[in-house]
Write a structure and sequence with these properties.
79 residues, 23% strand, globular
């Protein structure tokens, strides 16, 4: 899973950092900073809840991203 923030939609509520402090901190103005886009499997449920709780839907949890050998640009390639 990969997390992304839409900086245009984000208005700095900070709820994401409260729900997922392991991966998200806030800058001085209250906007999220991601420690990493990649979400460890153990935090996947928390990441989904944080994305679902975002009041402006600016935090996106991308479940289609596959990590592992043979991965390029977030997609698994055959061969």
């Amino acid at each position: 899973m990969r997390l992304r923030v839409n900086p245009i939609a984000c208005t700095g509520h900070g709820m994401c950092a409260e729900l997922l402090p392991e991966l998200i901190t806030l800058d001085p103005w209250g906007y999220p900073l991601l420690a990493s886009e990649m979400v460890p499997q153990a935090l996947a449920g928390h990441a989904r809840r944080a994305a679902d709780a975002c009041p402006t839907l600016a935090l996106l949890a991308d479940d289609s991203f596959v990590a592992g050998p043979g991965v390029r640009h977030g997609r698994r390639h055959a061969g």
